[in-house]
Amino acid sequence: MGWPVAAVLTWIFIVAGSLFLIVGGIGILRFPDFYSRIHPAGITDTMGAWLVLVGLMFASSSILVTIKLVMLLIFLSITSPLSGHALAKAAFMRGLKPMLGRDLAQEAEDD
After folding, report:
1. Which one of 65, 68, 87, 106 has the largest count of C-beta atoms within 10 Å of its C-beta?
2. C-beta of residue 16 within 8 angstroms of C-beta of residue 51
3. What digits encode the pLDDT tens for the residues 55-73?
4. SS (H, E, C) the chain
5. Cα angle at 42 between 102 and 105, to 5 degrees?
6. Contact 46/82 with Cβ under 8 angstroms?
7. How many CB atoms lie within 10 A of CB 55?
């Protein structure tokens, strides 16, 4: 008859995470400069991966697997923001300037 609650939650979280991953991938391709591309990359790292992993937790029948997935979530929540910040800081220190004002408007006109 009806689906178990865990199966429904599994599919909801995995589909939502997949949508975040797809939208983030499109954002990486569409955004004009390096600094604005860091944002969708962070979205895919955090929200997309988080939702997929939570969905996998609901699908898991083993407590050991769930604990490993929680550890992976903790690892991602620490490393994803740090990697985005390190990339932006390294690019800025190397002299890469963000697109502002006229540069951004010119890029939009060229497309």
Report:
1. 87
2. yes
3. 999 999 899 999 999 999 9
4. CCCCHHHHHHHHHHHHHHHHHHHHHHHHHHCCCHHHHHHHHHHHHHHHHHHHHHHHHHHCCCHHHHHHHHHHHHHHHHHHHHHHHHHHHHHHHCCCCCCCCHHHHHHHHHC
5. 10
6. no
7. 21
Domain ranges of the chain: 5-110
Q: Which residues contact 38 (CB under 8 A, 6 or more apart)?
A: 84, 87, 88
Q: Please state, in angstroms and rounded to a whole number, the distance separating the CA atoms of residues 80 and 58.
A: 23
Residue 44 CA to residue 27 CA, distance in Å, equals: 10
For 65, residues 6+ apart whose C-beta sits below 8 A from its C-beta are none
For the segment 13-46, what is each residue's pLDDT rounded down to a tens digit? 999 999 999 999 999 998 888 888 998 888 888 8
Q: How far apart are CA 77 and CA 90, in angstroms?
A: 21
